[in-house]
């Protein structure tokens, strides 16, 4: 379970951790500006709910029957994919022209989906992922992850 302890606070769920860190540390520049706030929360929670559920169910071979699609929070896989594709096609980043914490979360799902085939390799997804993966901070984060994985592997 992803969890963050910060002082006496414990935050779980990656989307919540992203939002918490962005607003707790505004100097990071990852919190939404007032004109980005609606899209920030919309796409952060769309990804943590409908996107995650639809992609997981699809990867497991489960498709919601047409007569039951109103009972789930996402309808069907194709609707979710098309909605997400439209969202990342509108601007360079999910809320506009500026990278923020919502891109950290949305981007991680798109990167994972492209890598493991849970999302189709649509040009809009590839272009969005390319913008994110080439950021210096992403490269540094990957280097830290690789070093931590290597250190953990050397202990076994």
UniProtKB/TrEMBL annotation:
Residue ranges annotated for the GST N-terminal domain, each copy included: 1-29
A single GO molecular function term of this UniProt record: transferase activity
Keywords: Transferase
Hydrolase in keyword set: no
Residue intervals of the GST C-terminal domain: 33-156
Top-rank taxon, per record: Bacteria
The protein's name in its UniProt record: Glutathione S-transferase
Taxonomic placement: Bacteria, Pseudomonadati, Pseudomonadota, Alphaproteobacteria, Hyphomicrobiales
């Amino acid at each position: 379970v992803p969890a963050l302890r910060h002082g006496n606070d414990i935050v779980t769920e990656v989307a919540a951790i992203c939002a918490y860190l962005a607003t707790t540390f505004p100097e990071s520049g990852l919190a939404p500006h007032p004109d980005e706030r609606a899209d920030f929360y919309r796409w952060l929670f769309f990804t943590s709910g409908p996107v995650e559920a639809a992609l997981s169910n699809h990867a497991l071979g489960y498709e919601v029957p047409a007569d039951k699609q109103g009972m789930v929070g996402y309808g069907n896989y194709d609707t979710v994919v098309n909605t997400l594709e439209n969202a990342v096609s509108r601007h360079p980043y999910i809320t506009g022209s500026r990278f923020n914490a919502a891109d950290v979360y949305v981007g991680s799902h798109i990167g994972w989906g492209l890598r493991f085939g849970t999302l189709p390799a649509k040009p809009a997804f590839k272009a969005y992922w390319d913008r994110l993966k080439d950021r210096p901070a992403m490269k540094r984060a990957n280097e830290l992850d690789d070093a931590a994985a290597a250190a953990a592997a050397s202990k076994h």
